[in-house]
Amino acid sequence: MAWEFEKVAGPYKGRTGGLAWDGSAMLFSAVQEERILRFDPATGNADVFRKYTGRTNGLAILKDGSVLGAQEGGRRVIHFLKDGSTAPTNELLDGQHHNQPTDIIVDGKGWAWVADPYNAQPPYGPPAFPFLDHASVLRLEPDGPRTWKLERITHDTRGPRAVLLSADEKTLFVADGDAERGDVCQLFAYPVKPDGSVGPAKALLVFAPAERGIEGLCLDSEGNIVACAGWKKGGVGPMAYVISPSGTILESHPAPADLPMRCAFGDAGLASLYLTAGDGGLYRARDTGRRGLKR
Amino acid sequence: MHGSLEHLKIEIDLLAPGAERIVGRNPPLDIIARDIIFGEGPVWDARGKQLYFTDIIGDTIWKWKPGTGQEIVMRPSVKANGLALDLENRLLAAGWGGRTVFRFEKDGAIKTLADRWQGRKLSSPNDIVVKSDGSIWFTDPPGGLLNVGMVGIDLQRYLDNQPVFRIAPDGKSMTMVTDDFVYPNGLCFSPDEKLLYVNCSRERVIRVYDVKPDGTLGKGRLFHQYTGPERGVPDGIKCDVEGNVYCTAPGGIYVHDTTGKVLARIKTPGHHATNIAWGDDDWRSLYITMIGSVVRTRLNIAGVPSR
Fold this sequence. Notes:
CATH class of chain A: Mainly Beta
Number of domains of chain A: 1
CATH class of chain B: Mainly Beta
Distance between the termini of chain A: 26 Å
CATH superfamily of chain A: TolB, C-terminal domain
Strand order of the largest sheet of chain A: 1-26-25-24
Strand content of chain A: over 45%
Largest sheet of chain A: 4 strands, antiparallel
Number of helices of chain B: 0
Strand content of chain B: 35-45%
Helix content of chain A: under 10%
CATH superfamily of chain B: TolB, C-terminal domain
Shape of chain B: globular
Order of helices and strands of chain A: EEEEEEEEEEEEEEEEEEEEEEEEEE
Shape of chain A: globular
CATH architecture of chain B: 6 Propeller
Largest sheet of chain B: 5 strands, antiparallel
CATH topology of chain B: Neuraminidase
Strand order of the largest sheet of chain B: 1-24-23-22-21
Low-confidence stretches of chain A: none
Oligomer: heterodimer
Distance between the termini of chain B: 33 Å
Number of strands of chain A: 26
CATH architecture of chain A: 6 Propeller
């Protein structure tokens, strides 16, 4: 079955990024416009959810409806509270400022898993703090009101771009490698141990050199990974894939625009797949034959 | 990042005839403070014969007295940035991460002078200056809501513009005097207070405004555009008694004549200067706050006294 994407919002300036379904609408980041928008499928309108986001990309919704954002420009994860204010989280990993978070998910315990790569665009402010000597998946755990504990989770990533947990939260999938920095891109699966740390990674997919790897990940109701990847510069081009948990590519679909960024299921019954891209659009495929996993 | 202080030195570029009358070829360099992270907000207190400055990331307001050394004035300091002294010699701070402008009362209490504009929280007051009529002028860009290590408890920006504000001498009203900027940073008056200079970190310019007797400004004019390849942005700005303008900018501290022409450049290779203040009894010392330190040099001309 071919996936037919329609552009439902945009284009916005620069790339669109992080996506999060809030139960009735799709939040998405217009990263360079420093805004989060909210696309309501009932009206077809994309209204401003938050301005001045400091180049927030990845988005995740907490149980109370507040939103966590991966703020690339400020080198932090920020917490968009329901009163309209925005709180910082923990920016320090063992006393050092971490890199530039780009993707974030929240698990059933309310812990936030964060992809913390380097970024081509420098952060805001004077360069007072060096970057970490590693680019890893980090995890924020609530540790009292407005305080978060920050831990390093992966020790072998070069530049994680996207993170995803399996339905049982026993496997962490990480899209690693930034083709724009010349990295080889891979999709890793890590077993999550009962203590919350991860075991050794298994490479599920390895992309060819110069091929842009996965930038966005989500899960379908059967536990398969839906990923968007690729670019027109090389390889098979911009694509959306359905990948089994063991790493078999089950389906390949052309993405509707170059540099697909993130993907997420939304709409009633999580029946539609939304996708953001390098052209600043928000796209939707209504009939994919798949549904999103309801967590 | 900043290099080792052992290698800290001052280099002077004399770029126009007569510049040596203002800046010597080999001015001295004294290290005033070394154990700080991000120096800013220098202001000389002539009555107390001491220098106040901030360490934004170190979350501290300091004072330093020759012969005595450093002492904490406030810690945590809400990541305060620019400092000034009012007509009663009270210390004022542009609260930056704390999003307010505040004053140290004689009894040590902190009084908030400004925290909102038209009902919305200020962004992050950056630098501050007091006019001789007692009015307080400050810039309000959003960097204290974004910059790594400098933010407070609410990072949300609410104002859609980036104004320069003026608090009236009686402290009871605040007006927006301009919002010409995409990132207003340092500001200072000419010696006769007929001109206000404001620099813009984003556009890398200095603009100059006529100051009207009622406290409003005329239309801004371009005073200087920085075009060099060096890293950095215009930040602190001050005038000397002849009206020459000193600005920490990409590649060093620039000295401009009153037309904007560059007369000289005071460089601190490997060290990023953030702001400057005139000080000492003859106002001929130039205190320089930097990433990692505060230093002092001597010039051949006096600056406009900070009070």
